[in-house]
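Format notes (please read before filing issues)

Several people have asked whether sequences and structure tokens are stored in separate files. They are not. Every record keeps both together, in the order shown below: the sequence lines, then the token lines. Line labels are part of the format and must not be stripped during preprocessing.
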Amino acid sequence: MKKILIVEDDEGLNRGVSYSFEKSGYEVHTAFNLKAASVLLKQLDIDMIVLDLNLPDGSGIDFCREIRKESVVPIIMLTARDLEIDEIQGLDAGADDYITKPFSISILMARVNSIFRRNNNHLNSNQIRSRNIVVNLDNLKVYKNNEEITISSTEFKLLKYFIENKGQVLLKEQILSSLWDDKGNFVDENTLPVNIRRLRKKIEDDPSEPQCIKTVHGMGYMWSEE
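Then the structure lines:
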């Protein structure tokens, strides 16, 4: 069941939207401010965010930008602002769609369903996702925050291997055997750390403090989604 997070401080509107989505078979979670929304995003594997632009404790646009640093979760913005510049700012911040108030619940529902269908089509084209990274297995391209990054074939194989085994501690010997040496031949011991260092420079926001590929001292590495 898809999980939708509704971030809207108007209690009546929040309840109405939530009720409609629950009737349509979605699992709905609600927040009335950004602080509560941040907590829920850390606790749950949310599939879609419906986000109001003006909230008591901050801007939905700023919140969207923060989310996009770590996640590609679809975001639909709701706002009473109907100026073109406001819509441009929302989309530039990383929103997938933008709906002005007042709006029809059925229109919102149709937009949500459309995004889910589009994402399912992308997945059918053979993609894997984690954090803010998308790996397309068909064209061998990698995207960070929806922007393509240049990556070598070795780095691609390494990234794919990490994401497919996310949350697991991978021994250095295990990685080398799987990606470089499946015939028992010698592989230089610097091969793995050199390639991981290069990969970190491309996918980590701060390569000196890696959050995706974490070193497990004395053992190997682990891809973390936390």
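For reference, the curators noted about this record: The CA atoms of residues 146 and 163 lie 17 Å apart. The longest helix spans residues 105-124.
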